[in-house]
Amino acid sequence: MYMDDDNTKPTNGALQNGDKPASDAEHEDSDDDNEAEEGAAETGEGAAKKKKKRKPRKKKKAGAAGAGGAKAQTAPPRVRIDEVFPNDSYPEGEIQEYVNENAYRTTNEEKRHLDRMNNDFLTEYRKGAEIHRQVRQWAQKWIKPGMGLTEIAEGIEDSVRALTGHQGLGNGDAQIAGMGFPTGLSINHCAAHYTPNAGNKMVINYEDVMKVDFGVHINGRIVDSAFTLTFDPVYDNLVNACKAATNAGIKEAGIDVRMSDIGAAIQEVMESYEVEIKGEMLPVKCIRNLNGHSIGHYTIHGGKTTLLNSITKNFGTLPFCRRYLDRMGHDKYLLGLNNLVSAGIVEAYPPLCDVKGSYTAQSEHTFILRPTCKEVLSRGDDY
């Protein structure tokens, strides 16, 4: 796991604002009761004046946001996130205090001043994190056995682009906001970095373990988070081990913390779990060369000329896949793309696989080391 001072995320598992509170609704009911009592008082006087007819109040539609005219999200997600949060007041991530030798940062006045001075960029991170939460929460309900990987990837990516308001088809549009990198859908022994290309016929089955890994960026501020999706409860302990180990790594992380200490915390939790598959009890192990990484500005790990120009204009240093080139109308580009990779101009991210027949899980969050605390940007109600 590598960290920078601005944005860091933990090791892989291989290792939400708008609805009116209930109290307001109750207050409205009490107003109606008062009006009814007033009407009764008028009729009880025996006076000749007629009782005024009161027009019933129009009830607000469920899901309406009250002040500010915010809209409710749809399923699949298609309402731009800045229409759901019109004032750019996106939810703060989960705040965790530093521990051990970093504990002083929580109350240190100088660090608190630094935190207040350097937080403008956090709005972009929180916006991306909210988009990620809304899309993945929908995706977890939507994905079912028998669906094709291409359908799943395009469903997630279309939702992200709709919420950012950038379809990524014009020059430079994908660099303003959109996908941080292609959606990873890695099944069973394949741990990470697998994305379907055009013509892919693979489907997700009931007994499969699928890692769903996608990123959202706003002006190059990338929020990267992943989860493991299973349908058979036999794999629950594998998924739980992954989540618990990731949370242990986040808790241990901090400024100037040794990587070995973070790794030890992750390994201790991960390897305390066992999974029973087909009557055999199997230990859960960390994958040695699959770990956390820093996230920089526009960098996630961080004829040929025409193709390269198109890649540079549309993606810059952001990762892309062949499906994205197809979507932009490119064809007959494979030879040129292979040459760019061979020359070291374009960096390849091949799938990371374990032993065939094994099952791998992944859990991943993006968090930032602020001067006074850790903010887990991608934390949600789901994980």
UniProtKB/TrEMBL annotation:
Q: Where is the Peptidase M24 domain?
A: 125-303
Cofactor comment:
Binds 2 divalent metal cations per subunit. Has a high-affinity and a low affinity metal-binding site. The true nature of the physiological cofactor is under debate. The enzyme is active with cobalt, zinc, manganese or divalent iron ions. Most likely, methionine aminopeptidases function as mononuclear Fe(2+)-metalloproteases under physiological conditions, and the catalytically relevant metal-binding site has been assigned to the histidine-containing high-affinity site.
Q: Would I find Cytoplasm among this entry's keywords?
A: yes
List the Pfam families hit by this protein, alphabetically.
Answer: Peptidase_M24
Which residues participate in a divalent metal cation 1 binding? Answer: 213, 224, 364
Question: Which residue stretches does the UniProt record annotate as biased composition, category Basic residues?
Answer: 49-62
Cofactors needed by this protein, per the record, are: Co(2+); Zn(2+); Mn(2+); Fe(2+)
Give the matching InterPro entries.
Creatinase/aminopeptidase-like, Met_Aminopeptidase_Type2, Pept_M24, Pept_M24_MAP, Pept_M24A_MAP2, Pept_M24A_MAP2_BS, WH_DNA-bd_sf
Source species, domain of life: Eukaryota
Q: What is its EC number?
A: 3.4.11.18
The enzyme class is: hydrolase
For region Disordered, the annotated ranges are: 1-90
Q: Where in the cell is it found?
A: Cytoplasm
Biased composition, class Acidic residues, residue ranges: 26-40
Q: PANTHER family annotated for this entry?
A: METHIONINE AMINOPEPTIDASE 2
User: What functional role does this protein have?
Assistant: Cotranslationally removes the N-terminal methionine from nascent proteins. The N-terminal methionine is often cleaved when the second residue in the primary sequence is small and uncharged (Met-Ala-, Cys, Gly, Pro, Ser, Thr, or Val).
| Name under which the protein is recorded | Methionine aminopeptidase 2
Q: What is the lineage of its organism?
A: Eukaryota, Fungi, Dikarya, Ascomycota, Pezizomycotina
